[in-house]
TrEMBL record:
PROSITE patterns: PROKAR_LIPOPROTEIN
Name the record gives this protein: Lipoprotein
Lineage: Bacteria, Bacillati, Bacillota, Clostridia, Lachnospirales
Organism annotation: Lachnoanaerobaculum saburreum
Length: 195
């Protein structure tokens, strides 16, 4: 009887040890960041894909379905004109008098063109590129100087004005721009280092 209990306790001990190893080795290790903005902004993913959000307080009694239909019509009209650069509606809804619409893009040029098409002035970007930091040849980028000790996996090089979210924790933003976790407000030429 004692041997049986000891065997059960050992199995439980092994299970707990395995669960702790999985937890500590981080079946996720790094915090995952989703894009759920409470302000108009752009989202930069590690692979360079982009999203943008329009978030605005509204006074009318509009319904989420009406907003979704309107946003879908804008996307369809744009995609008919631009077969190479496609936009996708990710989310559209109204909650507590706040309307939110989120779009994803196949390229920066697509995001820029769609903003002109829809007269979206929530961001004003001239360029945006994302590189894996280990692959980027910073010696060819004269205006980029990363201070010693800054760690990160990706660099987003941005020229323009926008509220930016990244899908990893920000570790550095040039020009002494303040940042918080995975958000920063950029204006002009800036680069963001993130994990």
């Amino acid at each position: 009887m004692k041997l049986y209990r000891r065997g059960v306790l050992m199995k439980k001990g092994y299970l707990i040890a395995i669960m702790m190893i999985l937890f500590l080795s981080g079946c996720g290790g790094k915090k995952a960041y989703s894009y759920n903005p409470d302000e108009s902004s752009i989202f930069i993913s590690k692979d360079g894909t982009l999203k943008s959000a329009l978030v605005q307080k509204i006074d009318t009694k509009a319904k989420s379905e009406e907003l979704k239909d309107f946003a879908n019509a804008e996307v369809e009209d744009f995609n008919k004109l631009n077969s190479a650069n496609q936009v996708k509606l990710e989310e559209a809804g109204i909650k507590n008098d706040i309307a939110k619409v989120v779009f994803s893009y196949t390229s920066f040029e697509c995001m820029q063109e769609f903003a002109k098409f829809t007269q979206d002035n929530s961001f004003d970007l001239k360029s945006l590129d994302v590189y894996k930091l280990s692959d980027a040849d910073l010696s060819k980028m004269d205006s980029i100087k990363i201070p010693d000790g800054i760690k990160g996996d990706y660099i987003a090089v941005i020229d323009g004005k926008a509220d930016v979210y990244t899908d990893g924790k920000i570790t550095y933003v040039s020009n002494n721009i303040e940042f918080n976790d995975n958000t920063a407000k950029v204006d002009g030429f800036n680069y963001i280092i993130f994990k």
